[in-house]
Design goal:
41% of the residues lie in helices and 14% in strands. By secondary structure, it is an alpha/beta fold. Strand 2, helix 6 and strand 3 form a beta-alpha-beta unit.
């Protein structure tokens, strides 16, 4: 009985993964088959089968990638025996509107954690950042571990990988205000007025920060003042605070 349940879940999980690879080309028949497959689990013995089957009501043509990926989570958890949540699905749907973009580019140089990179894509999407630049050994959205935290935002946020970051920064020195985020005696406070022009935010390695040749190419250094014993935040948290402050000032001036 247990083996039969696992086989059915595994088959459905593999089908979902196949659909994920061609998500933007899913047709109505495939959506209906997916919906029927989830509903059929209601008759399958096993823990949490009824809850997984109930997700069928959320399956519809035109659902967002994030919405679809949330269907895969309970299947993964069931197969790994790590089901902990009573609610499996994010109940709010993605907004169906054109993406608003602001002239802010986020540059990630030698970011070690793929989960931090995924968080940056979520941030860039919600913020309306123009695009993301990846450099050094920073993981790209091709990595599954990035996709786990980006939740589909890598499809909506333009990005590119730059091999020679110093050269790229030099090319943008006249057209953009380049701001390095680093703890430094020369750093300005986050809330200090930004120059109102297209801007590049540069973030470095979680432990070692930015290299000297990068800092020399920046127009200014900024930091978020800490009130506690630690002198810094997680790079993703810092980016969120800094970016939304920049956008607040931009909107106030425009």
């Amino acid at each position: 009985m247990e083996s039969s349940s696992r086989e059915q879940i595994l088959k459905l999980y593999r089908y979902c993964r196949d659909l994920e690879k061609k998500f933007h080309r899913i047709d109505e028949k495939e959506v209906q088959f997916l919906k029927d497959s989830f509903q059929s689990l209601a008759e399958t013995p096993g823990p949490h089968m009824d809850k997984i089957a109930a997700l069928s009501k959320h399956i519809k043509l035109g659902m967002s990638l994030q919405h679809f990926q949330n269907l895969i989570v309970p299947l993964e958890r069931w197969l790994n025996r790590t089901v902990r949540d009573d609610e499996f699905l994010v109940r709010s749907e993605d907004q169906k509107k054109e993406r608003t973009s602001f002239p802010l580019i986020l540059v990630l140089d030698h970011i070690r954690s793929a989960f931090n990179v995924g968080a940056f894509f979520r941030l860039a999407d919600s913020l309306g950042a123009e695009k993301i630049i990846l450099s050094g050994y920073t993981p790209t959205p091709q990595a599954l571990s990035v996709q786990k935290t980006s939740l589909g935002s890598e499809d909506s946020v333009p990005w590119e990988w730059v091999e020679n970051l110093p050269s790229w920064l030099q090319l943008h020195q006249k057209s953009h205000r380049i701001v390095a985020w680093e703890t430094s005696d020369k750093a300005k406070e986050c809330t200090f007025p930004f120059e109102q022009k297209p801007t590049i935010f540069l973030f470095g390695n979680e432990r070692f920060g930015l290299e000297a040749d990068r800092l020399k190419l920046c127009h200014e250094i900024r930091e978020i003042k800490m009130m506690g014993l630690k002198n810094s935040l997680n790079v993703g948290q810092s980016a969120a605070i800094a970016s939304f402050e920049w956008r607040r000032q931009w909107l106030s001036s425009h």
